[in-house]
Design a protein that fits this description.
It is a single chain. By secondary structure, the chain is of the alpha/beta class. It has 5 domains: 37 residues, no CATH class; 155 residues, 3-Layer(aba) Sandwich (Rossmann fold), CATH 3.40.50.360; 100 residues, Beta Barrel (Elongation Factor Tu (Ef-tu), domain 3); 87 residues, NADPH-cytochrome p450 Reductase, Chain A, domain 3; 144 residues, 3-Layer(aba) Sandwich (Rossmann fold), CATH 3.40.50.80. The chain has 23 helices and 18 strands. α3 runs parallel beside α6. The longest helix has 20 residues. The termini are far apart. The relative contact order is 0.08.
């Protein structure tokens, strides 16, 4: 059957009808189907309104200043949330920026952590110093918001974020999101701040359209660790397969080598990472706290204080809250005097306050004063290539006495005193991609790790042995006594014998009348150490931040000045260049 042709009544001139009929008569079914779709599309395009120009996305820079990775994780989550809301969002590490870069980034959300007593993260120190310095550029036109992370155990809580926030205003920038200061349990407050900031900053048209449709901004904070299904909120129950004190019985300290079974966890740690342990408070200390506030017979509260609440750290917030709750005039006077409060808190804990200013509290009042019990991070002391589905840690037992009361570290006391082989620990991974072995296994490395700071370097050497890395390795180790405190001595000697360890330099502070530390040995070996740096070695430092890290940095500056025959300022620039190049890396606590 022939297809129908255009009738003479079709709205075309006669010659067009004849031409169209001539073409149509010769078409196939496939051609007519194609032509039908083409004509429909042609009609739609011809009758529709011109397409609106694509909306220009709002530029948003999310800058992080991090030491342990918390702010970097938050920044990445914020970037993803902003992208879903239509922002042109981009992530920046403060270590890669100068203050002059900020005005060109668009709106800036800056997430900064404070380290210790008001110090910036070491990688962000050049940016921070330049921003606070007299040569910082004006910032008119910059719109910004700051989220600050810190630890209320320190007097200068969230100092870095606070000073950045204030300094940007001084330089003429406009604050578009009020700063929020977060304690160790920062997740909830950070989520609320990021969600609120993004809602405030969205173009008005987007907000009006969403309000009209009843849409709700949702900021999804999914898991960001490489820890599978386990994180700090949902830790993995790891069995303790080994727990042994590495110090001799005559040592004045105890340092425990801990082996954990990670089978079934999916936790894929790398050398340089840390494992977080969720501790439990000593039941005897819980009992003392309850006795001080007049509570007894509440088993549920006792369990909550053992597992969930920090009953040790005496924060300014707790003191102020206790003063307001009780109306105690003496407490209020203490809370109002910042200098006096800082001195009082310096070597006291919660129990000291409760016993010195005794008041009856309810269960809800007590728990309302306490912050969550934080996990404690320990550097991984093993390589998965060597130990497979295990993770090894090195834990020093903290014991001391103040105000006639014996004190024990919450986590180290829990592990060393109330756990044994076969028990479990609740653990999670804390990745640290800024403390990794060099990408090129031929690169030489210098490791400085006194005491428990040697833990990640045991992992480094296990990893380099497993992959047969050709790079030279040099370890500086220090502790109290050679005979009693030489942690992993036999392993280091095996690495020396095999040639895996090119040099092992040690310093034992109490084996001679004058104290001798790793920085003294480094100075004695300054020519060779500088030569390694000149040939491209990466230098790693792990351990106590309070004194050791500063002392080692100072001797490095002296070594560079001595070997290059320059002054301290140029030597400091040399070390700063090493940091920027990722060749001078710190993991301090």
């Amino acid at each position: 059957m022939n297809p129908p042709l255009l009738p003479e009544t079709a709205p075309f001139p006669r010659d067009h009808i004849a031409a169209l009929n001539s073409v149509m008569a010769a078409t196939s079914t496939e051609q007519r189907t194609w032509l039908s779709g083409f004509l429909a599309g042609y009609q739609a395009a011809a009758t529709s309104q011109p397409a609106a120009a694509a909306a220009v996305k709002t530029k948003l820079a999310i800058v992080f200043a991090t030491e342990s990775g918390n702010t970097e994780t938050l920044a990445e989550q914020a970037r993803k949330a902003a992208g879903r809301l239509g922002f042109a969002a981009k992530l920046y590490d403060a270590a890669d920026l100068t203050p002059a870069d900020l005005p060109g980034l668009g709106i800036v959300l800056l997430i900064a952590s404070t380290w210790g007593e008001g110090d910036p993260p070491q990688r962000a120190e050049p940016f921070y110093t330049a921003l606070l310095g007299p040569a910082a550029p004006r910032m008119e036109g910059l719109r910004f918001g700051v989220l600050a992370l810190g630890d209320q155990a320190y007097t200068n809580f969230c100092e870095v974020g606070r000073r950045i926030d204030e300094r940007l205003v001084e330089l003429g920038a406009t604050r578009v999101a009020e700063r929020v200061d977060c304690d160790l349990d920062y997740q909830g407050a950070a989520k609320a701040w990021i969600g609120g900031a993004l809602e405030t900053l969205r173009p008005a048209g987007d907000a009006e359209r969403d309000n009209a449709s009843g849409a709700v901004i949702h900021v999804d904070f999914g898991r960001a660790d490489a820890a599978g299904a386990y994180d700090s909120a949902t830790p993995f129950p790891a069995e303790i397969t080994e727990l042994v004190n590495l110090n001799s019985s005559r040592s004045g300290k105890q340092t425990f080598h801990v082996e954990l079974s990670m089978a079934g966890s999916g936790i894929a740690y790398e050398p340089g990472d840390a494992i977080g342990i969720a501790p439990e408070n000593d039941p005897a200390e819980v009992e003392a706290v309850l006795r001080a506030v007049g509570i007894s017979g509440d088993a549920a509260l006792e369990r909550a204080l053992v597992e969930k609440h920090d009953i040790s750290t005496l924060t300014p917030t707790l003191v102020r809250g206790y003063a307001e709750l009780t109306g105690d005039a003496n407490l209020r006077a203490l809370a109002a005097d910042a200098a006096r409060l800082a001195e009082y808190r310096d070597d006291r804990q919660v129990i000291d306050l409760l016993e010195a200013y005794p008041h009856q509290l309810t269960s809800a009042q007590l728990t309302g004063l306490l912050r969550p019990l934080p996990a404690r991070l320990y550097s991984v002391a093993s390589s998965r290539k060597a130990v497979e589905e295990e993770a090894h840690l090195l834990v020093g037992l903290v014991r001391y006495e103040t105000h006639f009361r014996a004190r024990t570290g919450v986590t180290s006391g829990f592990l060393a005193g109330r756990r044994k082989r076969g028990d479990t620990l609740r653990v999670h991974l804390k990745a640290n991609k800024h403390f990794r072995l060099p990408a090129d296994p031929a690169t030489p490395i210098i490791m400085v790790g006194p005491g428990t700071g040697v833990a990640p370097f045991r992992a480094f050497l296990q990893e380099r042995e497993a992959v047969n890395a050709r790079g030279k390795n040099w370890l500086f180790f220090g502790d109290r006594n050679f005979t009693h405190d030489f942690l992993y001595q036999l392993e280091w000697q095996d690495h020396l014998a095999s040639g895996r360890l090119a040099h092992l330099d040690v310093a034992f502070s109490r084996d001679q009348p004058a104290k001798r530390y790793v920085q003294h040995v480094m100075w004695e070996r300054r020519a060779a150490l500088h030569a390694w740096l000149e040939e491209g070695a990466h230098l790693y430092l792990c351990g106590d931040q309070t004194s050791m890290a500063g002392d080692v940095h100072e001797v490095l500056r002296r070594i560079v000045a001595d070997q290059k025959r320059t002054d301290a300022e140029h030597a400091e620039h040399y070390l700063a260049d090493l940091k920027r190049a990722g060749r001078y890396l710190l993991d301090v606590y």
